[in-house]
Design goal:
By secondary structure, this protein is α+β, with helices and mostly antiparallel strands. It contains twelve helices and 15 strands. Bound molecules: iron/sulfur cluster (SF4).
């Protein structure tokens, strides 16, 4: 447990469906301040969601007519933009006629599912409402959903109704890596959406699904049909998560934070205010308390590696942007710089390299065909040692490499690396280790 009275609480009064998994694992994640940041995978996901929403509402042609505008909206450029558009073209699945897309729902104070304003984790809720979330796509079979004015809402608002005897299908699109998504039978986000959708539409049977947007038809994780008992349990589970998160807020307001680390930390918006992460970084750097010594903590270390890699990637992107903008390397003092290091890498043309190697090495030549300079040196050394010749490896390899070059079997490929370097560094394009 860590106590830090200086941490201001997160004032949000609800846990949205997309945060349920992390909130269940770590209620403190809902209590600490969240920091908005540019997250390109999330923007790609949002663009694909927008495109699929248009497919359901207006058909696939209209959806593709808007794809460039959608990419603009989410700031997708260059390769990311091209790959996102290509992914949408490859994914051929179209929701059934009558499907409803992007439906934001919550529970009201009386325990009824209601339609609300908002989306993407931010909602305007009436007093006492809780558990908001947006359902990516829902439909019913064999009869489609019917939009009717519902007396529960004073007949002034049309809501979708699931015809008697039909099954309601509720799906959540996933555009990222499936290893971070809980299986559908234990996925609180999908269960929460299914429970609210059933309550709103009057459906007695619901099939919940996670659709991974990949390939032509996607990969579908589909639940067994869930009846009223299972849906009531889902609602109770979400309420328990909500209550734990609200308790964590009260604790944080008193200066008490109880973070629980794990793989759920990977996309946590409270990461930068999390005391556990400060401990993590100081521990990994060797200057803090050794919090990764016991076996139970090892899973945390796995999550830590992923987060530190994210940190390194983001930090390098920031540094690179600075170098590109100013056109100057970053001066670290003492002749050391961080910036673009232009060099070259020796490459080999296989069909011109092979005759030279065969002449020198016989059948062992084929072992060189990874083909790298280091590999050729290793094969030469092994070839000579097999004949009892030692200490001739380096000059022999040099001679062979020269022959390969003369035969036009190798060439220098320009490389550009952003890294540390010295002004007088001439290490042939290999990484400078510090
Ligand atoms: S980073 Fe991890 S431990 Fe910290 S608040 Fe977020 S989910 Fe909890």
């Amino acid at each position: 447990m860590s106590g830090r009275a200086t941490i201001p609480p997160n004032t949000r009064t609800y846990v949205s469906d997309s945060s349920l998994h992390r909130a269940e694992e770590c209620p403190a994640s809902q209590a600490l301040p969240c920091v908005g940041h540019v997250n390109m995978p999330a923007n790609v996901g949002s663009a694909i969601h927008d495109h699929l929403e248009l497919r359901a509402k207006h058909g696939i042609e209209k959806a593709f007519a808007e794809i460039e505008a959608i990419c603009d909206r989410w700031g997708l450029v260059d390769v990311t933009r091209d790959v996102t558009i290509a992914r949408c073209h490859k994914f051929k699945w179209v929701p059934p006629d009558g499907a409803t897309a992007e439906l934001p729902l919550a529970w009201d104070a009386e325990g009824r599912a209601i339609m609300v304003d908002g989306g993407r984790g931010t909602y305007n809720l009436p007093p006492g409402a809780w558990g908001p979330g947006t359902i990516d796509i829902l439909w019913s079979e064999p009869e489609p959903l019917v939009w009717t004015h519902d007396p529960r809402f004073g007949n002034c608002l049309a809501v979708p109704h699931c015809p008697e005897g039909s099954t309601l299908f509720v799906a959540d699109y996933k555009t990222g890596e499936d290893r971070y998504v809980p299986p559908v039978e234990n996925n609180p986000q999908v269960a929460s959406g299914a429970a609210k959708a059933a309550n709103l539409t009057g459906a007695k049977n619901v099939v919940a699904m996670v659709i991974f947007v990949t390939g032509e038809q996607g990969v579908w994780d589909v639940s067994e049909p869930w009846g009223p008992g299972r849906l009531a349990a889902a609602k109770a589970r979400v309420r328990a998560i909500h209550d734990s998160a609200m308790q964590a807020k009260a604790d944080v307001a008193k200066g008490v934070v109880r973070p629980r680390e794990g793989m759920h930390c990977l996309y946590c918006d409270a990461f930068t205010h999390c005391p556990a992460k400060v401990d993590m970084i100081t521990s990994v750097l060797g200057s803090g308390r050794p919090c990764y010594e016991v076996e139970d903590d090892l899973p945390k270390l796995v999550a830590t590696i992923a987060q530190v890699e994210t940190f390194v990637r983001n930090a390098k992107a920031l540094l690179r942007a600075s170098v590109e903008e100013t056109g100057k390397s970053i001066d670290l003092g003492g002749g050391l710089y961080w910036g673009e290091k232009v060099g070259s890498r020796l490459k080999f043309v296989s069909h011109k390299t092979l005759p030279v190697l065969k002449n020198e090495l016989g059948e062992d030549a084929i072992d060189a065909f990874e083909t790298t300079k280091a590999r050729i040196r290793a094969v030469v050394k092994a070839h000579l040692e097999a004949q009892g010749i030692r200490r001739k490896g380096a000059p022999t390899a040099r001679r062979i490499l020269e022959q390969i070059e003369k035969a036009g079997g190798s060439y220098l490929e320009p490389t550009s690396t952003y890294t540390w370097y010295r002004e007088d560094d001439d290490n042939d394009g290999e990484d400078f280790e510090v």
